[in-house]
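My convention is simple: the sequence line spells out the residues, with the fold written below as integer tokens. I include a record here:
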Amino acid sequence: MDRISGYSQVSEIIPFDYSQPFLLFPVRHHSPVCSWQLIRAIKEYQPDVILIEGPENANDMIGVLTDERTKLPAAFYYYYKDRKKLISDEAEDYKCYYPFIYASPEYNALKTAAAMDIEARFIDLPYSEILITTAVNKGLRSNKDKHSYTDDSRLIYSKFCKKLCEKTDLRTFEEFWEKYFEIEGLRLSVQDFVQQMYTYCIITRNDETEDDLAADGTLARENHMALRIKEALKDNKKVLAITGGFHSLGLYELLKSDNIQKEKLHKLSQKDEGCFPVAYSYEAADALSGYASGIQRPYFYDCVMNKLIHCDDPAGVYSDTVLDLLIGTVRACDKHDIPVSMADASAAQSMMSGLATLRGCHECGLYELEDAITSSFIKGEKTISSALPIDLMHKLATGDKTGHIGDINHVPPLIADFEKQCKRFRLKIKTVTPNKTEVSLFTTANGMEISRFFHRMVFLGTDFAQRTKGPDLHRRKDRSRVREEWVYKKVPATDVALIDHTADGFTIEEACRTCASRTLRHEKHCDVAAHILVDCFQMGLELSDDDKACAENILNSDGDFFSVGRGLRHFITLMELQQLYNTEFSAAENCAKRCMTRIITALPDMASVKDDHIAECAAIMYAMQKAVTDGFREYRQDYENALLSLCGKSDKDPFVYGTALGILYAFDPHHRKLAEQAMSSYLKGDRNVQIQGAEFLHGLFNAARDIIMTDDSFIRMTDTLICGLDYDDFIEILPSMKLAFSCFTPYEIQQTATAVAKLYDADSAELLTEKTINERLYSFGEKIDKEIVKLLSEEEKP
């Protein structure tokens, strides 16, 4: 490494001498070589106390992590509720993970300390204090969806790293790290390895400014860790401090200059801040699919670590682990019916060994294996399908296992509440196959409670339950059903989701309420807000006064007619079902009234709505009609005036026009004349206007079917419209005409047939029972007739 970097003198900045009262051991998180060298250092140095980078409010959890019953991957889950607004006026909730795998240096330090009866503890600022000292969009306050405390991105994406990769002809930092640290580091003494780490980390740190270090909380954290090291030195002769390599220089300079600032931490209750040990997964720990920190392919490096712990000589460990992974890949290919012969496997083994020699590696690594599989297993061009062996190797190297926390006394509260609820409702959560249950919503004592529990689990995204049958209130379908059918099964994602929501509350109900409130606060569209209220209704959660005010503010600010209209339909549904579900949901009525006011004002402007919104506009008009008929009678006159204003627009869609006149007729039969005049105008127009008459009838009949039954005027006008068109125009309007009459009941169809029969002095029964003629067959018959006439004409010629 010294030869490559050209910075050998840099390592001399920080001494690493076993005769010193304290040692700084730099690590990369989840690195097996760092763990192996660290274990050697602990045994050689024999410290009195081991101090480890990590939020110190997890010190009580160390025993749970090192418990023999705990199986990795595992993590410490930190949460902080900014109720006191120490971070911002938003008073948001924060959370992050501190993951551990068997290759993690921190975990190995704790296990070694326990085995040697050495005191070990974390020394970093509590999670809340890190957040308070971090600028917005920096560090643990960045815009990532999920955060990990063990973020090595500075070591990975530095300018120095980029130059090293270019100089050594290596493709990525991970390939560089594996070659020069993971593999070569096993051949070095502890001192040489640590100095090599110092060299890389110090040069990397030189790319950062003081402002950058202050903004993401690095300087505050280092000051606190230096303070804890200084305190430990007062009571101990030998202190070993283990931190991410990026912090080594900062800590050493603080301790050497004794320029450590006094600090005062905030006093917070357990409700505002806490830490839990939780089960974790290899997939989440992977830098590619998890939190973009740590190391890639974690299970592979855990296998390396397992071999290092149980061997006397580290030589050959990497080659052996890579060979195991190659064999595993061959077996996986066989299971997926991918043709890989023994000759292919042998060729891959030879090639990865040859590549290692060619690249100057003392052993084969992951990247030699990947290149060998690509060359030996993939025939022809590399495509998505042909590269499946590479994907299988990556999955095996990443791992698919989830850990387990051995001490049940430290189960996160949401998981504890979940298990309590499952026990209460007698749900089977320890089976490997999905379970099916039928929930009677209104006839059993706890049917509604079980339904609400399932809906809450769906709302939290736990992948625990899925409804297969029952009323769908979001889409307003099957509302008459009195039973729900659910399929449920506890999966690893269930615990992960519940842990992620620990910051939202200590019970599932509280977490759902917090989640719904937070979503409402950030929402701007009425239909989405209404969707959330439907969720709350199904979960049995009444809104707080603040939530109601927030929902009303969304309605007042949303200028989208269709968003408000969709919201109205949701609110009307909730109003109708309150009594049936025995749930008081006062917010629905208030929101529905506000929606009515907004829509009535905007309705006339919907006369010329675009084609892709026509059906939705009509659906909203029907919902308003139902609302003013059933409950909101005070809005009826305003609604009628809005419809009349829409009808008076010069440019209007025929379907929306027909719908408006149909609703007006339903309100007052005297409006029939307006509909007749409109239809007459379509009949008197040119060809294009007459074709639009079919869409007008479609909207009219959908809104007021009985208008055709009062007298035969609309039947006559419809007949005139059809008879006045040529064949091509008739074919064009036929779909609309079919839709116009599709809403009629069998009795109404019979009455219509009778009226049509009178126009042509025909028998109405024949119109209803006469078999229809296949249009294609009729057209073929016409062609035959023409050919026959042609042949006869030719025969008659002299």
About this structure: The radius of gyration is 37 Å.
